[in-house]
Amino acid sequence: MQAEQNDRKPIAYITNTPFDVALHYVPTEELISGMNKAARGAGVWIYFYDKAFDLPVWYNAGMYRSFAGLIFTITDESVVWKMHCRRLSKVMPCVRCKIPAAEKSAYVGVDEAAGIDVIVKHLADEGHNRIGFMTSDNLEYTVARRKAFLAAMKRYGLSFAPEWMYEFRTEEASTASTKKPLAHIRNSSAVDFLTRYRDSAIECAAIVARQKKRPEALVCTHDLLAFNLIEALKRHSIRVPHDIAITGFNDDAAFDVRFNSLTSVHQDYLRIGHESVSLLLEMIRTPRRNSHPVRLIPPTIVIRRSSLKRSLGLKHDDAFRARVYDYLKSYYADTKAIHHMHEIFGISRDHFSKRFKRAYSRTVTDVVNEYRLSIAADLLKYSDTSITDIYLNCGFDSHQHFSTMFKRAYTMVPTAYRAAHGAGIH
Predict the structure, then answer these.
(1) Which residue spans within 121-224 are E strands per DSSP?
(2) Which of 46, 127, 382, 392 is most buried (most C-beta within 10 Å)?
(3) Using CA atoms, how far apart are residues 241 and 309, in angstroms rounded to an integer?
(4) Inter-axis angle of helices 140-155 and 112-125, to 10 degrees?
(5) Does residue 35 contact residue 46 with C-beta atoms inside 8 Å?
(6) So what's the pLDDT on residue 78?
(7) Distance, CA of 132 to CA of 239 (rounded, Å)
(8) To 5 degrees, how large is the angle CA 196–CA 251–CA 239?
(9) Overall pTM > 0.70
(10) Digit-coded pLDDT (tens) for 279-331
């Protein structure tokens, strides 16, 4: 009888995010669209309330009795709203949407573990072995993503080091447990999440820049955090993805062009909204005591430039090698010009050396010497140029050094090589 009466009542979606901002945010549009579609299909009215709604007054006046059930998306910033959500969950069917509660409750949201797993697998497939993790808060879903990251690293047999875990917490204690290993833990007093993300990214970039052995990739818990980190790394001449790969979570590129090169996890908000209403209606029509059903919606990965290594490397390194070869043809004998080769690429000597090693699997010195020796070998075979002129014109500073290097490469000294391979020109 109670279920039949509830079937005639509307349901409501309540969030402490202001709609005048949120409705311009693509995920929120999709979420509400999914809710509307499910409610319309079931012949149920659904009301929407945002931050302007006075939940405590509404609760104390007993106005919730006009509704069959409620869906909540409440951020951790509002302690009062969270308290009233817990109270309402005890007296009527309620579903948490997008953001899980600390206590047991019905919930519909993204499968956090699956999202992190697909990111870590992608990074491993791209050839990244040393992978780190960064977060700027200690909320429930952040803790879930951290736990999933550690599990995925173990699953794929990837290198893990505590110094590649970067956590920047708010001063308010987490309701969820946070366990080691975490090497870089900072408390932030910033209330505004935009400021917190920016400050955390700046500090993280400074730590990464100081590390002798850095991670090859960093998994960030939010796209906005990842974007701020990329900007902060630029100040230390650390480039993405050349020097370090960065990934986010949420796929905010759909509404913000700043993220259009960021690899991220896309959440199906349309389905999350639809499933939230469907689950609530099931709870209304078939009440079960102490039942806390959970529906996790699988996400998908959106691969962009920020995380690429192997996929980007072949094409990128071919162009790099072509430029190096052109430069060597012109300046192979000029030791000073070789020393400043990095300048034509507009990067520091250290970054050039790393990029060179990645492209050639050898050092700059090894490749330059190989090129110089090949020129010297041709001159020994096809010219009558003196050995002294040859080694000087090829950039070697002494006969002994030239002779030693040549024998190492061609198994015989220059004079013997000319005698064996020369074309009769002496």
Answers:
(1) 131-135, 165-170, 184-188, 217-220
(2) 46
(3) 7
(4) 40
(5) yes
(6) 75
(7) 16
(8) 65
(9) no
(10) 999 999 988 877 889 999 999 999 998 998 877 654 456 677 778 888 888 88
